[in-house]
């Protein structure tokens, strides 16, 4: 027992304030919970405080009393959970036991900040826990540590089912080769050991220990990493994760909901909270939900700022530097896509990690700094001059010259999943940034030839994105990597490439379009790769992308024959409308293609499904109809490619 410690053993275990009433040998907390109030006993120090064993000095009478108290506590919690389920479920419903733990999971709070004081579910717990003090008054102080502890303990009752040890081992083995391309997973605060550098045996032991606890930031971190593993499993994986009646996506959604509520309620100031939100962001990115991923990464920024990660000195440990670097770089990447302002200042990007970053990571870091300048330009379009774009273009050229000479795009048999993905991901983000630099002026190039350089540069960037994507998906080692946002980035680049072709053709004649035969072949290869990706991964974004590109290519060649107009909103780009022309009169256009977009910032939509994001049906999105830029192109019948 530490010198000066006055808390009883039970209050110390529960980490709550221990208060003894006057002339009483039982503290206030133990009296309320009807548990034995014992002084702390000296014991050996043990790192794992969650798995402490019962002291050998306890008598059989004490053990019996503890067991009786635990049984009463279990009965109390069972009654509490039953009352909450009755309140949440309509009268008369009796969901199957296999799905009850998932359907009763707390509502999704990943898209909003929820505090322990005002969360509806927590209020429900507080109302259900009608604990009274010795004088009969309701003991319901929301700031009281013991009350918060009861709420957190009760939340663990809603934990979704986790795989049994045998299935967990199979999940880890199947996903192990992808761990290195995910956010760095640290086992504990201020330690350098990571999941990426440990063995499957050690990882299995860690998950079996932590996942059985049911609450805490460490549990949240472990469950999110497990979610990534399950998400990356093959589409036709022959093993059952939990139950045949629970689909993989339903399980993933349940994990996300539960962890989101836990993180909101726990509210700890810990660097592992930053890690949790980085993992959550990666899960949402893979699902094609960039807006929810942006919300998660803003939570990571807030948590990191609270523990001082944005102002680290040169002596800070590698874990803190790595977590902050990953956080602000991801935030820049999402802001440039979504058209949002960045919350990271220049000071926040001055981390010193040059010695520990790989070549691809160093390039990506420099690229994210340039992204910050592009975001700042886009957020102030009235003050933006073309000279700023020229300077950004020069910065990108200088960065490209620093690429390692061995990056040729050719991979030998010894190439790993990590090496292929790291290289091609850098290329995709590089060319995507270059596209965002020139796209606003590419849209103006048809009416003002001073911006022809931007049109050509944007088209070159789009070609680079598509070629990198084809190399990535063309390798057997990386073709099954789950990332619907990457599929969408490549699709939107193909849209911009076709727009550049049409706007630079000058006239809608076969000779003008056939001058871009290489580009059309590239688009056709992309359509095939997107369809293959959908068949391998059941990817909604890849499926919709292939269908839209097929329709757009047909309309560009005048072979779109559907009677009704084809209208859809391309998220984070603009509107596309395709109309069939007059087939009786060959002198009139065969098809009409209309693009609408904004110069610098993305449009907002009145009927945009925030939860589904890129996975929703793009034809059902209702836009505002107000755009900075509209252009119509006519095509004549040109035959097949």
Tell me what the structure shows.
It comes from Hypocrea virens (strain Gv29-8 / FGSC 10586). This is Zn(2)-C6 fungal-type domain-containing protein. This protein is 51% helix and 4% strand. It is mainly alpha-helical and 641 residues long. Among the domains are: 238 residues, no CATH class; 82 residues, no CATH class. It has a 4-stranded antiparallel sheet with strand order 1-2-3-4, with helices on one face. The longest helix is centred in the N-terminal third of the chain and has 29 residues. It is elongated. The C terminus is likely disordered.
List the keywords:
transcription regulation; transcription; Zn2Cys6_DnaBD; mainly alpha; four-stranded antiparallel β-sheet; zinc ion binding; 641 residues; nucleus; disordered C terminus
How much strand? Answer: under 5%
> Main β-sheet: number of strands, strand sense, barrel status?
4 strands, antiparallel
- Continuous helix count: 21
Mean pLDDT: 82
**Main sheet: which strands, in order across?**
1-2-3-4
The structure class reads mainly alpha
N-to-C SSE series?
HHHHHHHHHHHHHHHHHHHHHEEEE
Radius of gyration: 29 Å
Uncertain segments are 44-58, 88-117, 125-140, 637-641
Report the helical percentage. 40-55%
Secondary structure tally: strands: 4
Large-scale geometry: elongated
GO molecular function, one term: DNA-binding transcription factor activity, RNA polymerase II-specific
Organism: Hypocrea virens (strain Gv29-8 / FGSC 10586) (Gliocladium virens)
Protein name: Zn(2)-C6 fungal-type domain-containing protein
Keywords: Nucleus, Transcription, Transcription regulation
């Amino acid at each position: 027992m530490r010198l000066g410690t006055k808390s009883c053993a039970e209050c110390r275990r529960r980490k709550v304030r221990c208060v003894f009433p006057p002339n009483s040998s039982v503290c206030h907390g133990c009296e309320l919970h009807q548990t034995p109030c014992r002084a702390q006993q000296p014991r050996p120090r043990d790192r794992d405080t969650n798995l402490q064993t019962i002291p050998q000095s306890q008598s059989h009478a004490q053990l019996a009393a503890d067991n009786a108290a635990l049984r009463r506590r279990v009965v109390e919690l069972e009654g509490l959970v039953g009352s909450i389920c009755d309140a949440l479920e309509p009268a008369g419903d009796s969901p199957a036991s296999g799905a009850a733990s998932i359907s009763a999971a707390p509502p999704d709070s990943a898209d909003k900040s929820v505090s322990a004081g005002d969360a509806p579910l927590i209020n429900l717990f507080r109302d259900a826990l009608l604990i009274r003090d010795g004088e009969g008054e309701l003991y319901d102080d929301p700031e009281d540590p013991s009350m918060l502890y009861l709420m957190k303990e009760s939340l663990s009752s809603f934990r979704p089912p986790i795989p049994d040890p045998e299935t967990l081992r199979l999940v880890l083995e199947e996903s192990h080769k992808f761990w290195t391309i995910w956010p760095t997973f640290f086992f504990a605060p201020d330690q350098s050991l990571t999941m990426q550098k440990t063995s499957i045996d050690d990882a299995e032991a860690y998950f079996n220990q932590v996942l059985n606890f049911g609450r805490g930031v460490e549990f949240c971190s472990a469950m999110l990493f497990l979610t990534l593993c399950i998400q990356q499993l093959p589409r036709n994986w022959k093993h059952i994760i939990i139950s045949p009646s629970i689909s993989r996506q339903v399980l993933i959604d349940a994990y996300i909901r539960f962890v989101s509520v836990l993180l909101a309620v726990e509210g700890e100031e810990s660097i592992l909270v930053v890690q949790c939100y980085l993992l959550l962001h990666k899960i949402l990115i893979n699902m094609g939900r960039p807006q929810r991923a942006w919300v998660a990464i803003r939570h990571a920024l807030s948590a990191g700022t609270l523990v001082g990660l944005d102002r680290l000195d040169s002596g800070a440990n590698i874990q803190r530097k790595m977590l902050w670097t990953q956080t602000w770089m991801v935030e820049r990447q999402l802001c440039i896509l979504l058209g949002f302002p960045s919350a990271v200042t220049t000071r926040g990007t001055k981390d010193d990690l040059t010695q520990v970053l790989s070549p691809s990571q160093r390039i990506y870091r420099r690229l994210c700094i340039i992204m910050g300048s592009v975001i700042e330009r886009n957020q102030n379009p009235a003050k933006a001059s073309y000279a700023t774009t020229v300077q950004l273009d020069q910065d990108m050229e200088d960065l490209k010259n620093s690429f390692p000479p061995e990056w040729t795009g050719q991979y030998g048999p010894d190439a790993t999943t990590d090496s292929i993905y790291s290289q091609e991901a850098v290329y995709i983000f590089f060319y995507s940034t270059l596209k965002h630099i020139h796209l606003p002026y590419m849209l103006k190039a048809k009416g003002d030839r001073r911006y022809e350089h931007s049109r050509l540069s944007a088209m070159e960037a789009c070609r680079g994105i598509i070629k990198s994507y084809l190399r990535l998906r063309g390798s057997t080692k990386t073709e099954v990597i789950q990332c619907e946002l990457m599929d969408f980035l490549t699709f939107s680049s193909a849209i911009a490439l076709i727009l550049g072709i049409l706007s630079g053709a000058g006239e809608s004649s076969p000779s003008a379009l056939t001058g871009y035969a290489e580009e059309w072949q590239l688009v056709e290869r992309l359509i095939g790769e997107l369809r293959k990706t959908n068949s391998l991964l059941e990817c909604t974004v890849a499926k919709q992308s292939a269908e839209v590109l097929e329709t757009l290519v047909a309309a560009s060649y005048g072979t779109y024959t559907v009677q009704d107009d084809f209208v859809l909103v391309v998220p984070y780009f603009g509107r596309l409308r395709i109309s069939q022309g007059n087939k009786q009169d060959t002198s009139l256009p065969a098809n009409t293609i209309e693009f609408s977009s904004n110069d610098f910032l993305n449009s907002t939509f009145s009927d945009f499904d925030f939860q589904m994001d890129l996975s929703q049906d793009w034809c059902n999105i209702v836009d505002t109809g107000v755009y900075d830029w509209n252009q119509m192109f006519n095509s004549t019948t040109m035959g097949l490619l």
